[in-house]
Design a protein that fits this description.
Chain lengths: 535, 319
């Protein structure tokens, strides 16, 4: 895996060295392949689907954006200040930023955008991100008409205040700023049905032109873009059938596509197309139900982890597209550490020995037993992925070798989620895709609804809370390093692998990040406003 | 005749559709999984937001209440709002995609009949000839081959290897909409969708014609010295076509539902991807809307078949 990535990077470096001599050129159509159709909800505070967010990020600008190092950078806000007590952020806006209809963007538009999220009749899903704002809860519950936590100081200055210090807060301000002059007369409860959502107007690098259901979305360069007109004239998000994607790439009918590992070999042979493999902000895992006494002892969870050949899973079943994981913060994140992290290399003898020392003895049928507990359990596997199904078989086989009986239960994804939510499972496998800030509160805090393993650990909660309060990046890193070591020892879930993403890019595309981090060669889509197309 | 049609609709159609929608709504709501499951993936989402969403979507009502509310809206001509983030009217989602699905389905039906009937006739006319055996063999291949596999095969050969036809989709952005363009984009999905029907129709046509050929009135026709061609094409054919008309009524809905799979392979902008997405996401109003439409189609298909039967066969009269 690593070796292959290196080779790809070298090829790309050679190519880009040749291209670097060229001057950026204006013009052309850039086609981005989408294998799933956007829904046509091009409103940054109401959309839930990823593909809609692609269009949104090109039509609107946020106060900030997230750069390749996953750090917040100024956008519509030229800079921001965080108060000494860590409670408030003041954004200072550029003057002269204009919406596509020519109206200037001011702090009132920012206020409208974020206050709408807190409104009692708001129908979207972003409230959780901003409920820490002073007065947000009262406003949200209809008990007051104002939000003291959002304060417009003048047309170009706006201040957000939270009830407690919250380090990741600034990274939440990436949402596109809505034009209040077009929307404020629409009742918030009816906003989700406004025609505006299908004909969006923002201040971003591209203007919305056309959305044809299940076919394409066309955007055109915004000539008056505050940060400089994009080099490409037209940006097309082209719907392509998943099965036909390699053909589209080969025929150069799309310039950029994310492909699955299954297509890697096929696409890598295509002349004129470069492949980039980069680490994603995601991992998959096998979760133990720690509410059951047999999984309560960390030794059992560790032994099972030692007993599962995760190297074979990643290298053979996933064909190297992935990295064995041992803690819940992906390698691609700035908070990742491998210091003091146990790698749990495959060692069935050690696993068997650990279980024996913990008092587990083979029962009459060879399955390990202790008191009235028995290491025979169900393993819930969502259907649909060949690799995941093979992984489940490997797990079953490996466990049998150390005296554990695994009964596989394959289930359609939604149905599996039902079982997990009802806590009616012994073990299951799924994956998490994470936001750019490493704050683990949402998944791992004992009060979180998504704490599926039922992991309750005082020190862990303490560290998670400390990490949220700490605004100094280095200190936050240390807190998360200690937290990762704790999770790595406790293993409420067995971590399988960090994910990778593969992007296929036509080599005529210039100005991309040729050594991509987790955001990929286009740095999310940020670089679409500066790339250009060679002849 | 009109009385018959009205009676069919009132006495048979409406109770059947009511029963069907009731059962379907029951099945999709008791099936595991929830329309808000996918919201779990939204970062920082809290339980309260999900609970609010459930309330907004009316998921807190019991099954009978949900169904009656849905039915009440449908009777007023409103199929409800989609559960996905866009909250668009279901009727609009369906209407937007209907033309593409109808275009594809009609093309493949016409293709199937244009090819299937003549092939079936020839196959019966020259029974036990090399032609007949070849047709029979190919028909079995056509019926047996799964459409997703056949579709991929066509993509591989005509789009990738020969580069003659587009690999699915329906007009690239900015491409001119010419007649040739339509043919180009329709050809592969049309053949894929029509294949099993071509084969099926050819087989039905063959056996239907063979059955008629053995009957007494044809022996009379031959006895009075008519050539075999006149016997088959003039006298046998019209009688043999009768059961095929019924078949047409049955195949129309199957073509539409077959389109669901084929459309997904070819990224055809019709109802197919909407239907599959809706099932995966438990988007109840969309599932109900699409299925109600299919149910009405099946009912009308049967009705049309029965009526055309009466038109083609003077012996059949409905009172």
């Amino acid at each position: 895996m690593r070796r292959m990535m290196l080779a790809v990077v070298i090829v790309c470096l050679l190519l880009s060295a040749a291209a670097a001599a060229q001057e950026p050129k204006q013009g052309g159509v850039f086609r981005y392949a989408l294998t799933t159709n956007p829904r046509g909800m091009f409103n940054p505070i109401l959309n839930t689907e990823t593909y809609d967010s692609y269009i949104i990020s090109m039509v609107y600008d946020g106060l900030i954006y997230i750069d390749e190092q996953l750090q917040p950078q100024p956008k519509v806000a030229k800079y921001w200040e965080i108060s000494d007590d860590g409670l408030s952020i003041t954004f200072y806006l550029h003057e002269g930023v204009k919406f596509h209809d020519g109206v200037e963007l001011t702090a009132h538009d920012v206020e409208y955008t974020y206050k709408t999220i807190l409104h009692p009749e708001y129908t979207g899903v972003r409230y959780g991100n901003f409920k820490l704002l002073v007065g947000a809860e009262d406003y949200h519950n209809g008990l007051s008409n104002t939000v003291p936590g959002i304060e417009v100081i003048d047309d170009y200055t706006i201040k957000f205040t939270t009830t407690e210090p919250y380090a990741p807060f600034v990274t939440q301000f990436t949402y596109g700023i809505l034009p209040s002059h077009l929307l404020e007369d629409i009742p918030v409860g009816e906003l989700e049905r406004a025609d505006f959502n299908r004909h969006p107007i923002g201040s971003g690098p591209f203007k919305f032109v056309e959305f044809l259901t299940d076919q394409h979305v066309i955007l055109e360069a915004n000539d008056d873009y505050f940060f400089g007109r994009p080099n490409i004239d037209t940006l097309v998000f082209q719907r392509v059938a998943l099965d036909a994607l390699p053909i589209y790439i080969r025929q150069q009918r799309v310039d950029y596509a994310e492909i699955s590992p299954d297509n890697y070999a096929e696409v890598s042979g295509i002349p004129g197309v470069d492949l980039y493999v980069y680490e994603a902000l995601s991992y998959n895992y096998i979760c133990f139900n720690m509410r059951q006494p047999r999984f309560a002892d960390p030794v059992v969870r560790q032994a099972i982890t030692y007993g599962f050949d995760r190297e074979t899973y990643v290298e053979v079943l996933r064909e190297g597209f992935g990295i064995v994981a041992n803690a819940p913060i992906p390698m691609a994140s700035w908070a990742f550490t491998d210091e003091g992290i146990n790698e749990y290399p495959y060692n069935p003898e050690l696993a068997a020995q650990m279980l024996a020392e913990a008092g587990w003895k083979p029962g009459p049928d060879g399955v390990l037993e202790k008191d009235d507990m028995r290491l025979e359990f169900e393993f819930l596997v969502p259907e649909g992925s060949r690799v995941t199904e093979q992984m489940a078989l490997l797990f079953q086989q490996n466990m049998e070798d150390i005296g554990i009986k695994v009964n596989l239960v394959f289930m359609e994804f939604s149905a599996a989620v039902d079982r997990v939510d009802a806590r009616e499972f012994d073990t299951f496998t799924m994956a998490w895709s994470l936001s750019v800030d490493p704050d683990p509160h949402g998944i791992w805090h004992s009060t979180s609804p998504w704490n599926d393993p039922g992991f309750f650990n005082e020190r862990s909660d303490e560290l998670i809370e400390m990490g949220r309060r700490e605004t100094d990046l280095e200190k936050r890193k240390e807190i998360y390093a200690e937290w990762q070591r704790l999770i790595n020892y406790e293993l409420p879930t067995m971590f399988l692998s960090y994910g990778v993403t593969i992007a296929a890019v036509n080599e005529r595309v210039q100005g991309i990040d040729t050594e991509p981090g987790p955001l990929g060669p286009l740095a999310s889509l940020e670089r679409l406003s500066t790339i250009w197309l060679a002849d | 005749m009109w009385r018959y049609i009205i009676r069919r609709i009132v006495v048979q159609g409406i109770p059947v559709l009511l029963g069907f929608t009731f059962l379907l709504y029951l099945v999709i709501t008791i099936a595991p999984g929830s329309p808000v499951t996918h919201l779990r993936g939204v970062p920082n989402i809290d339980e309260e937001t999900i609970a609010r969403r459930e309330a907004q979507l009316g998921l807190n009502d019991s099954f009978p209440v949900q169904y009656l509310k849905w039915l009440g809206r449908v009777l007023r001509g409103d199929l409800g709002l989609s559960f996905d983030s866009s909250r668009r009217p279901v009727a609009e989602l369906i209407m937007e995609r209907m033309p593409a699905t109808i275009l594809l389905s009609l093309s493949s039906i016409i293709l199937a009949w244009l090819i299937g009937i003549p092939v079936g006739i020839l196959s019966a006319r020259y029974q036990y000839s090399v032609l007949d055996y070849t047709v029979t063999f190919l028909a079995f291949v056509g019926i047996s081959i799964p459409s997703f596999f056949f579709g991929l095969l066509l993509l591989y050969v005509f789009a990738l290897r020969l580069n003659l036809l587009p690999a699915g989709g329906f007009f690239m952005a900015g491409e001119a909409r010419t007649l040739l363009g339509y043919v180009k984009y329709l050809l592969l999905p049309g053949i894929t969708l029509g294949l099993s029907d071509i084969a099926g129709i050819a087989r039905y046509m063959r056996s239907s014609l063979l059955e008629v050929k053995g009957q007494d009135f044809l022996r009379t026709a031959r006895a009075k010295g008519l050539t075999e061609n006149v016997v088959v094409y003039k006298h046998a054919l019209r009688n043999a076509l009768l059961p095929i008309l019924t078949l047409m009524g049955f195949t129309i809905p199957f073509i539409f539902s077959g389109a669901v799979i084929v459309e997904n392979i070819f990224a055809w902008p019709g109802l197919g991807s909407l239907a599959i997405q809706a099932v995966n996401e438990r988007n109840y109003p969309v599932i109900m809307g699409i299925n109600l439409m299919f149910a009405v189609l099946i009912f009308l298909g049967n009705l049309v078949a029965d009526i055309s039967y009466a038109i083609a066969d003077p012996r059949i009269r409905y009172e």
